[in-house]
């Protein structure tokens, strides 16, 4: 097999279309600088070690100093390993794609994080861990620009790669990004718990809602409550966008309304929120003020031993024919130029397409004290989730599917043209004895 540099050169030769070469010259100034490959090669030889939600929960439930340090050293080796694989993936893209300024920006962020994280020495004390958590927090903040930059780069590079290759590249990068942020944010949450007074055995159990959380894992996630919360937010946004006189559809729930399961709450909120936004906006745009009571959005929750299914049905007219073939594509579609313009209005996004909630002492969401590693409070849907209906980015559904599949679930849509859409979200009951680590391995290893 040719080395990465040779593969990139051969790729350019194959791109004999003169417009591609002109594009490459236009972007040439944004090309990443050359770096020795030996160190990256060494880390690429390592394989990611998967971890299940059960293991994440176990570490938090029996948190001791030794377990905290063990978690820190796991994260210390995993983050640079996974970043190294993503850097190698980007190196094997056509050179004309890597020179795109948005792609080059992401590449440089990844390389800077890789160089920083690989140099962290073994963590032997709590003080070592606190310093490491400060590095993680700073890195997470810097990487909030990655998703919009990736999306803009993919849209601008249409025609330079086959659409299926572009979507595969995006899916791999996003799955890996989810895995990195999950283990990093879980460790930050565990460290925060370790430093709180109530985690000691002789302390009284506080009457605090956070006891339902182990790190970032919500042990009793209730599907009904998530749907109600997300529907209220979606209706509020729609009313602000379409006016107070607009007739909004009701969101009607039925089925197994007491279904609970362990899950990372922000992930589920994002998926359900995107589906409900789409349904409510579609009904409003179809019905307008023609009906006193627009057809409701119906949500059915079905609980089975190993999974929970949420079906969201609307009568918003279905998905337009020109959009349907590219429904799950990140960069291809008839409205990609509009999406590109809208992304310019979105400066930062976390992996869950949420911004970290600003702390009382920092308007930018960054901890005011430079010596304090503790992360800003997370959990509320951010300004992006509250984006107006006209700010359409074209990646809500592809991102939602990536999140659903990452946790061994699925997301499917069935469109009836002229009538409406049925969305089926299958949620694996993660954390129970049926969870298969092999599924996590297949996701984390890419």
Give structural notes.
- This protein has 446 residues and is of the alpha+beta class.
- The chain has 15 helices and eight strands.
- It has helices at residues 4-14, 18-27, 38-44, 53-61, 65-91, 95-98, 101-118, 126-142, 146-156, 163-195, 223-242, 265-287, 336-343, 396-406, 437-444; strands spanning 213-214, 217-222, 251-255, 260-264, 297-303, 307-314, 410-416, 420-428.
- The strands form two sheets. Strands 3-5-6-8-7 form a five-stranded mixed beta sheet, with helices on one face.
- A hairpin with a 3-residue loop joins strand 7 and strand 8 (420-428).
- The longest helix is centred in the middle third of the chain and has 33 residues, at 163-195.
- The radius of gyration is 23 Å and the shape is globular.
- The model is unreliable at 5-26, 201-210, 348-384 and 432-443 (pLDDT under 50).
Question: Mind sketching the topology for me?
Answer:
Elements: H1 4-14, H2 18-27, H3 38-44, H4 53-61, H5 65-91, H6 95-98, H7 101-118, H8 126-142, H9 146-156, H10 163-195, E1 213-214, E2 217-222, H11 223-242, E3 251-255, E4 260-264, H12 265-287, E5 297-303, E6 307-314, H13 336-343, H14 396-406, E7 410-416, E8 420-428, H15 437-444
Parallel strand pairs: 3-5
Antiparallel strand pairs: 1-2, 2-4, 5-6, 6-8, 7-8
């Amino acid at each position: 097999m040719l080395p990465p540099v040779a593969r990139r050169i051969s790729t350019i030769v194959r791109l004999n279309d003169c417009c591609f070469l002109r594009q490459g010259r236009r972007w040439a100034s944004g090309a990443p600088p050359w770096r020795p490959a030996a160190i990256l090669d060494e880390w690429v030889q390592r394989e990611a070690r998967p971890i299940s939600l059960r293991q994440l929960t176990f570490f938090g439930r029996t948190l001791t100093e030794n377990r905290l340090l063990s978690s820190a050293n796991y994260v210390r080796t995993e983050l640079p390993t996974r970043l190294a694989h993503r850097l190698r993936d980007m190196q094997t893209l056509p050179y004309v794609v890597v020179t795109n300024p948005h792609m080059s920006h992401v590449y440089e962020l990844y390389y800077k994080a890789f160089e920083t994280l690989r140099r962290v020495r073994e963590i032997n004390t709590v003080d070592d861990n606190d310093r490491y958590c400060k590095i993680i927090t700073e890195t997470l903040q810097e990487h909030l620009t990655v998703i919009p930059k990736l999306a803009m780069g993919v849209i601008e590079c249409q025609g330079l790669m086959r659409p299926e290759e572009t979507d595969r590249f995006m899916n791999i990068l996003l799955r890996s990004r989810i895995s990195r942020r999950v283990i990093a944010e879980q460790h930050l949450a565990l460290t925060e718990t370790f430093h709180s007074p109530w985690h000691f055995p002789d302390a009284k159990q506080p009457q605090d809602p956070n006891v339902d959380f182990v790190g970032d894992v919500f042990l009793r996630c209730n599907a009904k409550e998530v749907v109600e919360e997300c529907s209220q937010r979606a209706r509020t946004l729609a009313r602000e966008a379409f006016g107070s006189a607009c007739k909004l559809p009701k969101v009607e729930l039925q089925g197994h309304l007491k279904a609970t399961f362990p899950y990372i709450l922000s992930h589920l909120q994002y998926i359900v929120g995107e589906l409900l936004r789409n349904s409510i906006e579609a009904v409003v745009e179809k019905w307008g003020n023609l009906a006193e009571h627009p057809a409701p959005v119906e949500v059915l929750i079905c609980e089975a031993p190993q999974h929970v299914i949420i079906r969201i049905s609307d009568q918003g007219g279905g998905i337009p024919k020109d959009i349907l073939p590219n429904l799950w594509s990140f960069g291809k579609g008839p409205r990609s130029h509009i999406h590109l313009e809208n992304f310019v209005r979105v400066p930062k996004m976390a992996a869950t397409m949420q911004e970290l909630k600003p702390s009382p002492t920092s308007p930018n969401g960054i901890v005011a004290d430079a010596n304090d590693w503790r992360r800003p409070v997370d959990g509320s849907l951010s300004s992006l989730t509250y984006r107006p209906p006209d700010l359409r980015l074209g990646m809500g559904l592809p991102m939602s599917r990536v999140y659903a599949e990452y946790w061994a679930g699925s997301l499917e849509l069935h469109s009836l043209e002229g009538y409406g859409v049925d969305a089926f979200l299958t949620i694996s009951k993660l954390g129970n004895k049926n969870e298969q680590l092999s599924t996590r391995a297949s996701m984390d290893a890419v």
